[in-house]
Amino acid sequence: MVVILAQKYTLISIQLHIMPTHNLFSNLSFIVLLFFHFHFGASEIRFNYYSETCPNAEEIVKEQVISLYNKHGNTAVSWLRTLFHDCMVKSCDASLLLESINGIESEKISSRNMGMRNYKYINTIKDALESACPMTVSCADIVALSARDGAVMLGGPHIEMKTGRRDSKQSHLAEIDASLPNHNDSIMYVLSRFQSIGIDAEGTVALLGAHSVGRVHCLNIVDRLYPTVDPTLNPNYAEYLKGRCPHPVPDPVAVEYARNDRDTPMILDNSYYKNLKDNKGLLSVDQELISNPITSPFVEKMAADNNYFHEQFARALVILSENNPLSEDEGEVRSDCRFVNKD
Protein backbone atom coordinates (compact mmCIF):
# COMPACT_ATOMS: atom_id res chain seq x y z
CA MET A 1 0.00 0.00 0.00
CA VAL A 2 2.87 2.36 0.72
CA VAL A 3 4.07 1.98 -2.86
CA ILE A 4 0.63 2.76 -4.26
CA LEU A 5 0.28 5.78 -2.02
CA ALA A 6 3.71 6.98 -2.98
CA GLN A 7 2.71 6.78 -6.64
CA LYS A 8 -0.68 8.42 -6.24
CA TYR A 9 0.21 11.08 -3.73
CA THR A 10 3.59 12.64 -4.43
CA LEU A 11 3.62 14.49 -1.13
CA ILE A 12 3.67 11.19 0.71
CA SER A 13 6.55 9.97 -1.41
CA ILE A 14 8.55 13.09 -0.59
CA GLN A 15 7.85 12.90 3.10
CA LEU A 16 8.93 9.29 3.31
CA HIS A 17 12.41 10.23 2.17
CA ILE A 18 12.93 12.96 4.74
CA MET A 19 11.40 11.30 7.80
CA PRO A 20 13.66 9.46 10.29
CA THR A 21 13.75 5.75 9.52
CA HIS A 22 14.29 4.69 13.12
CA ASN A 23 10.73 5.56 14.14
CA LEU A 24 8.63 3.13 12.08
CA PHE A 25 5.47 3.73 14.10
CA SER A 26 5.63 7.50 13.57
CA ASN A 27 6.30 7.00 9.88
CA LEU A 28 3.31 4.71 9.45
CA SER A 29 1.08 7.04 11.49
CA PHE A 30 2.13 9.94 9.30
CA ILE A 31 1.36 7.94 6.17
CA VAL A 32 -2.07 7.02 7.46
CA LEU A 33 -2.86 10.65 8.34
CA LEU A 34 -1.77 11.82 4.91
CA PHE A 35 -3.77 9.07 3.25
CA PHE A 36 -6.95 10.12 5.03
CA HIS A 37 -6.28 13.77 4.31
CA PHE A 38 -5.79 13.27 0.59
CA HIS A 39 -8.14 10.35 0.07
CA PHE A 40 -11.10 11.60 2.07
CA GLY A 41 -10.33 15.28 2.59
CA ALA A 42 -10.33 15.80 -1.17
CA SER A 43 -13.95 14.67 -1.26
CA GLU A 44 -13.38 11.58 -3.38
CA ILE A 45 -16.71 10.01 -4.20
CA ARG A 46 -17.47 6.63 -2.67
CA PHE A 47 -20.37 4.32 -1.94
CA ASN A 48 -22.61 5.32 0.99
CA TYR A 49 -20.93 8.69 1.35
CA TYR A 50 -23.85 10.00 3.41
CA SER A 51 -24.15 6.95 5.69
CA GLU A 52 -23.36 9.05 8.76
CA THR A 53 -24.25 12.61 7.77
CA CYS A 54 -27.60 11.85 6.08
CA PRO A 55 -28.34 8.10 6.25
CA ASN A 56 -31.65 8.37 4.35
CA ALA A 57 -30.34 10.62 1.57
CA GLU A 58 -30.54 8.09 -1.25
CA GLU A 59 -33.94 6.85 -0.10
CA ILE A 60 -35.27 10.42 0.00
CA VAL A 61 -34.09 10.98 -3.60
CA LYS A 62 -35.71 7.73 -4.68
CA GLU A 63 -39.01 8.61 -2.99
CA GLN A 64 -39.05 12.01 -4.66
CA VAL A 65 -38.19 10.56 -8.09
CA ILE A 66 -41.04 8.06 -7.80
CA SER A 67 -43.46 10.76 -6.64
CA LEU A 68 -42.50 13.11 -9.46
CA TYR A 69 -42.70 10.29 -12.00
CA ASN A 70 -46.23 9.46 -10.86
CA LYS A 71 -47.22 13.12 -11.31
CA HIS A 72 -45.13 13.94 -14.39
CA GLY A 73 -43.89 10.81 -16.16
CA ASN A 74 -41.52 12.71 -18.41
CA THR A 75 -39.34 13.67 -15.44
CA ALA A 76 -37.67 10.26 -15.61
CA VAL A 77 -36.37 11.06 -19.09
CA SER A 78 -35.30 14.52 -17.92
CA TRP A 79 -33.10 13.06 -15.18
CA LEU A 80 -31.11 11.05 -17.73
CA ARG A 81 -30.72 14.04 -20.04
CA THR A 82 -29.68 16.30 -17.17
CA LEU A 83 -26.92 13.91 -16.15
CA PHE A 84 -25.58 13.77 -19.70
CA HIS A 85 -25.74 17.54 -20.28
CA ASP A 86 -24.10 18.27 -16.93
CA CYS A 87 -21.43 15.57 -16.73
CA MET A 88 -20.16 15.81 -20.30
CA VAL A 89 -19.17 19.43 -19.72
CA LYS A 90 -15.99 19.48 -17.60
CA SER A 91 -17.37 17.77 -14.49
CA CYS A 92 -20.37 16.20 -12.77
CA ASP A 93 -20.84 19.31 -10.69
CA ALA A 94 -24.41 20.59 -11.25
CA SER A 95 -23.06 23.64 -13.11
CA LEU A 96 -25.92 23.14 -15.57
CA LEU A 97 -28.44 24.11 -12.88
CA LEU A 98 -27.00 27.57 -12.19
CA GLU A 99 -29.06 30.58 -13.22
CA SER A 100 -27.64 33.73 -14.83
CA ILE A 101 -26.92 36.04 -11.90
CA ASN A 102 -23.97 37.83 -10.29
CA GLY A 103 -21.72 37.44 -13.31
CA ILE A 104 -22.70 33.84 -14.02
CA GLU A 105 -23.97 33.00 -17.52
CA SER A 106 -26.23 29.99 -17.25
CA GLU A 107 -25.45 26.92 -19.33
CA LYS A 108 -29.19 26.64 -19.93
CA ILE A 109 -29.02 29.39 -22.56
CA SER A 110 -26.80 27.31 -24.84
CA SER A 111 -28.46 26.02 -28.02
CA ARG A 112 -27.06 22.59 -27.12
CA ASN A 113 -29.39 22.61 -24.10
CA MET A 114 -32.49 23.51 -26.07
CA GLY A 115 -35.45 21.42 -24.98
CA MET A 116 -34.03 20.65 -21.57
CA ARG A 117 -36.68 20.96 -18.89
CA ASN A 118 -37.92 19.99 -15.45
CA TYR A 119 -35.05 21.77 -13.76
CA LYS A 120 -37.48 23.02 -11.13
CA TYR A 121 -38.07 19.50 -9.88
CA ILE A 122 -34.39 19.15 -8.98
CA ASN A 123 -35.10 21.78 -6.34
CA THR A 124 -38.15 19.80 -5.23
CA ILE A 125 -35.79 16.94 -4.41
CA LYS A 126 -33.29 19.37 -2.89
CA ASP A 127 -35.96 20.85 -0.60
CA ALA A 128 -36.81 17.40 0.75
CA LEU A 129 -33.14 16.73 1.46
CA GLU A 130 -32.64 20.13 3.07
CA SER A 131 -35.52 19.41 5.43
CA ALA A 132 -33.89 16.17 6.53
CA CYS A 133 -30.20 17.12 6.40
CA PRO A 134 -29.48 20.83 5.81
CA MET A 135 -26.46 21.73 3.68
CA THR A 136 -25.33 18.13 3.37
CA VAL A 137 -26.32 16.57 0.03
CA SER A 138 -24.95 18.24 -3.09
CA CYS A 139 -26.99 19.11 -6.14
CA ALA A 140 -24.46 17.16 -8.21
CA ASP A 141 -25.34 14.02 -6.26
CA ILE A 142 -29.03 14.75 -6.78
CA VAL A 143 -28.40 14.90 -10.53
CA ALA A 144 -26.61 11.54 -10.44
CA LEU A 145 -29.00 9.74 -8.09
CA SER A 146 -32.15 11.01 -9.82
CA ALA A 147 -30.78 9.69 -13.14
CA ARG A 148 -30.07 6.34 -11.52
CA ASP A 149 -33.58 6.08 -10.06
CA GLY A 150 -35.19 7.55 -13.17
CA ALA A 151 -33.64 4.78 -15.26
CA VAL A 152 -35.39 2.22 -13.05
CA MET A 153 -38.73 4.00 -13.48
CA LEU A 154 -38.21 3.65 -17.24
CA GLY A 155 -37.71 -0.09 -16.96
CA GLY A 156 -33.93 0.17 -17.08
CA PRO A 157 -31.33 -1.41 -14.80
CA HIS A 158 -30.69 -0.58 -11.16
CA ILE A 159 -27.25 0.99 -10.93
CA GLU A 160 -25.01 1.29 -7.87
CA MET A 161 -23.59 4.82 -7.76
CA LYS A 162 -21.03 6.53 -5.60
CA THR A 163 -21.79 9.85 -3.93
CA GLY A 164 -19.84 12.73 -2.42
CA ARG A 165 -19.75 15.07 -5.44
CA ARG A 166 -19.37 18.79 -4.89
CA ASP A 167 -21.26 21.58 -6.67
CA SER A 168 -19.51 23.99 -8.99
CA LYS A 169 -19.17 27.65 -8.08
CA GLN A 170 -19.13 28.67 -11.74
CA SER A 171 -20.78 28.04 -15.09
CA HIS A 172 -19.02 26.28 -17.98
CA LEU A 173 -21.07 27.90 -20.74
CA ALA A 174 -18.01 28.69 -22.86
CA GLU A 175 -17.02 25.01 -22.93
CA ILE A 176 -20.34 23.50 -23.97
CA ASP A 177 -19.89 23.54 -27.76
CA ALA A 178 -16.55 21.76 -27.49
CA SER A 179 -17.84 19.24 -24.95
CA LEU A 180 -21.40 18.28 -25.84
CA PRO A 181 -21.87 16.37 -29.11
CA ASN A 182 -24.51 17.87 -31.37
CA HIS A 183 -27.37 15.95 -32.97
CA ASN A 184 -25.81 16.20 -36.44
CA ASP A 185 -22.21 15.44 -35.48
CA SER A 186 -20.59 12.38 -37.03
CA ILE A 187 -20.47 9.20 -34.99
CA MET A 188 -16.68 9.32 -35.09
CA TYR A 189 -16.74 12.71 -33.39
CA VAL A 190 -19.25 11.47 -30.84
CA LEU A 191 -17.05 8.48 -30.09
CA SER A 192 -14.06 10.75 -29.57
CA ARG A 193 -15.97 12.96 -27.14
CA PHE A 194 -17.08 10.02 -25.03
CA GLN A 195 -13.60 8.50 -25.21
CA SER A 196 -12.23 11.73 -23.75
CA ILE A 197 -14.00 10.96 -20.47
CA GLY A 198 -13.22 7.26 -20.48
CA ILE A 199 -16.24 5.74 -22.22
CA ASP A 200 -15.40 3.26 -24.97
CA ALA A 201 -17.30 2.59 -28.20
CA GLU A 202 -19.40 -0.15 -26.59
CA GLY A 203 -20.42 2.20 -23.78
CA THR A 204 -21.15 5.03 -26.21
CA VAL A 205 -23.50 2.83 -28.23
CA ALA A 206 -25.24 1.85 -25.00
CA LEU A 207 -25.64 5.43 -23.77
CA LEU A 208 -27.12 6.50 -27.10
CA GLY A 209 -29.76 3.88 -26.34
CA ALA A 210 -31.26 6.49 -24.02
CA HIS A 211 -32.77 7.82 -27.25
CA SER A 212 -35.22 4.95 -26.93
CA VAL A 213 -37.18 7.13 -24.49
CA GLY A 214 -38.45 10.66 -24.82
CA ARG A 215 -38.73 12.78 -27.91
CA VAL A 216 -36.78 15.09 -30.22
CA HIS A 217 -37.79 18.57 -31.35
CA CYS A 218 -38.46 18.86 -35.07
CA LEU A 219 -35.69 21.46 -35.37
CA ASN A 220 -33.19 18.65 -34.94
CA ILE A 221 -34.53 16.36 -37.64
CA VAL A 222 -35.99 18.50 -40.46
CA ASP A 223 -32.66 18.49 -42.28
CA ARG A 224 -33.28 14.77 -42.89
CA LEU A 225 -36.73 15.46 -44.33
CA TYR A 226 -36.49 18.67 -46.36
CA PRO A 227 -35.98 19.55 -49.13
CA THR A 228 -35.49 15.85 -49.85
CA VAL A 229 -35.72 12.83 -47.59
CA ASP A 230 -32.48 11.34 -46.35
CA PRO A 231 -32.10 8.10 -48.39
CA THR A 232 -30.97 6.22 -45.27
CA LEU A 233 -34.41 6.71 -43.71
CA ASN A 234 -37.03 3.98 -43.93
CA PRO A 235 -39.68 5.48 -46.31
CA ASN A 236 -42.58 4.64 -44.01
CA TYR A 237 -40.76 6.12 -41.04
CA ALA A 238 -39.98 9.24 -43.09
CA GLU A 239 -43.70 9.68 -43.78
CA TYR A 240 -44.42 9.43 -40.06
CA LEU A 241 -41.75 12.03 -39.33
CA LYS A 242 -43.14 14.39 -41.98
CA GLY A 243 -46.53 14.06 -40.34
CA ARG A 244 -44.99 15.04 -37.00
CA CYS A 245 -42.81 17.75 -38.54
CA PRO A 246 -44.73 19.24 -41.48
CA HIS A 247 -42.72 22.47 -41.68
CA PRO A 248 -39.19 22.74 -43.12
CA VAL A 249 -38.54 25.60 -40.70
CA PRO A 250 -40.25 24.68 -37.41
CA ASP A 251 -41.11 27.26 -34.80
CA PRO A 252 -38.45 26.78 -32.11
CA VAL A 253 -40.94 27.44 -29.32
CA ALA A 254 -43.74 25.31 -30.75
CA VAL A 255 -44.37 21.85 -29.36
CA GLU A 256 -43.39 19.96 -32.49
CA TYR A 257 -41.56 16.72 -31.88
CA ALA A 258 -41.19 13.10 -32.90
CA ARG A 259 -40.30 9.93 -31.02
CA ASN A 260 -37.54 7.52 -31.94
CA ASP A 261 -39.36 4.53 -30.51
CA ARG A 262 -43.08 4.62 -31.23
CA ASP A 263 -43.86 1.21 -29.71
CA THR A 264 -42.30 1.60 -26.23
CA PRO A 265 -41.58 5.36 -26.01
CA MET A 266 -41.27 5.38 -22.21
CA ILE A 267 -39.32 2.16 -21.72
CA LEU A 268 -35.54 2.07 -21.76
CA ASP A 269 -35.15 -1.02 -23.89
CA ASN A 270 -33.38 -2.38 -26.96
CA SER A 271 -36.18 -1.44 -29.38
CA TYR A 272 -33.97 1.51 -30.28
CA TYR A 273 -31.37 -0.83 -31.79
CA LYS A 274 -33.99 -2.90 -33.56
CA ASN A 275 -35.28 0.30 -35.14
CA LEU A 276 -31.78 1.22 -36.30
CA LYS A 277 -31.54 -2.09 -38.15
CA ASP A 278 -34.77 -1.15 -39.90
CA ASN A 279 -33.41 2.30 -40.87
CA LYS A 280 -35.60 4.07 -38.33
CA GLY A 281 -32.93 6.12 -36.61
CA LEU A 282 -34.42 9.48 -35.65
CA LEU A 283 -31.19 11.52 -35.67
CA SER A 284 -28.44 11.14 -38.23
CA VAL A 285 -26.02 10.11 -35.48
CA ASP A 286 -28.45 7.33 -34.52
CA GLN A 287 -28.51 5.92 -38.03
CA GLU A 288 -24.74 6.10 -38.34
CA LEU A 289 -24.44 3.59 -35.50
CA ILE A 290 -25.59 0.79 -37.77
CA SER A 291 -23.47 1.80 -40.78
CA ASN A 292 -20.22 2.44 -38.94
CA PRO A 293 -18.01 -0.68 -38.70
CA ILE A 294 -16.86 0.24 -35.18
CA THR A 295 -20.33 0.57 -33.69
CA SER A 296 -22.48 -1.74 -35.82
CA PRO A 297 -21.41 -4.99 -34.05
CA PHE A 298 -22.57 -3.51 -30.73
CA VAL A 299 -25.87 -2.42 -32.30
CA GLU A 300 -26.43 -5.98 -33.52
CA LYS A 301 -25.64 -7.45 -30.13
CA MET A 302 -27.80 -5.00 -28.19
CA ALA A 303 -30.69 -5.48 -30.61
CA ALA A 304 -30.51 -9.19 -29.88
CA ASP A 305 -30.06 -9.03 -26.11
CA ASN A 306 -31.83 -6.49 -23.89
CA ASN A 307 -29.93 -7.65 -20.79
CA TYR A 308 -26.63 -6.99 -22.52
CA PHE A 309 -27.83 -3.49 -23.43
CA HIS A 310 -28.79 -2.82 -19.81
CA GLU A 311 -25.43 -4.10 -18.53
CA GLN A 312 -23.48 -1.85 -20.88
CA PHE A 313 -25.78 1.10 -20.25
CA ALA A 314 -25.26 0.77 -16.50
CA ARG A 315 -21.48 0.49 -16.89
CA ALA A 316 -21.25 3.57 -19.11
CA LEU A 317 -23.64 5.65 -17.02
CA VAL A 318 -21.46 5.07 -13.94
CA ILE A 319 -18.37 6.27 -15.83
CA LEU A 320 -20.28 9.33 -17.03
CA SER A 321 -21.54 10.08 -13.52
CA GLU A 322 -18.00 9.97 -12.11
CA ASN A 323 -16.45 12.37 -14.60
CA ASN A 324 -13.92 14.65 -12.91
CA PRO A 325 -15.56 15.21 -9.49
CA LEU A 326 -14.59 18.41 -7.72
CA SER A 327 -12.55 18.48 -4.52
CA GLU A 328 -13.88 20.09 -1.35
CA ASP A 329 -11.82 23.20 -2.02
CA GLU A 330 -13.00 23.49 -5.62
CA GLY A 331 -16.69 23.00 -4.93
CA GLU A 332 -19.40 23.39 -2.33
CA VAL A 333 -22.79 22.03 -1.29
CA ARG A 334 -25.33 24.55 -2.54
CA SER A 335 -28.33 25.37 -0.39
CA ASP A 336 -30.30 26.15 -3.59
CA CYS A 337 -29.33 24.31 -6.76
CA ARG A 338 -29.92 27.45 -8.84
CA PHE A 339 -27.42 29.69 -7.10
CA VAL A 340 -23.89 29.67 -5.70
CA ASN A 341 -23.87 30.02 -1.91
CA LYS A 342 -23.39 33.51 -0.52
CA ASP A 343 -20.08 34.04 1.26
TrEMBL record:
CC annotations in GO: extracellular region
Domain Plant heme peroxidase family profile: 44-341
Entry-linked InterPro entries: Haem_peroxidase, Haem_peroxidase_sf, Peroxidase_pln, Secretory_peroxidase
EC number: 1.11.1.7
Residues that bind heme b: 211
Active site: residue positions: 85 (proton acceptor)
Residues annotated as binding Ca(2+) 1: 86, 89, 93, 95, 107
Subcellular location, record wording: Secreted
Disulfide pairings: 54-133, 87-92, 139-337, 218-245
Transmembrane portions of the chain: 24-42
Annotated catalysed reactions: 2 a phenolic donor + H2O2 = 2 a phenolic radical donor + 2 H2O
Listed cofactors: Ca(2+); heme b
Cofactor note: Binds 2 calcium ions per subunit. Binds 1 heme b (iron(II)-protoporphyrin IX) group per subunit.
Listed GO MF terms: heme binding; lactoperoxidase activity; metal ion binding
GO biological process: hydrogen peroxide catabolic process; response to oxidative stress; rhythmic process
Annotated binding of Ca(2+) 2, by residue: 261, 264, 269
Keywords noted in UniProt: Biological rhythms, Calcium, Disulfide bond, Glycoprotein, Heme, Hydrogen peroxide, Iron, Membrane, Metal-binding, Oxidoreductase, Peroxidase, Secreted, Signal, Transmembrane, Transmembrane helix
Domain of life: Eukaryota
Family, as annotated: Belongs to the peroxidase family. Classical plant (class III) peroxidase subfamily.
Biological role: Removal of H(2)O(2), oxidation of toxic reductants, biosynthesis and degradation of lignin, suberization, auxin catabolism, response to environmental stresses such as wounding, pathogen attack and oxidative stress. These functions might be dependent on each isozyme/isoform in each plant tissue.
Name of the protein in its database record: Peroxidase
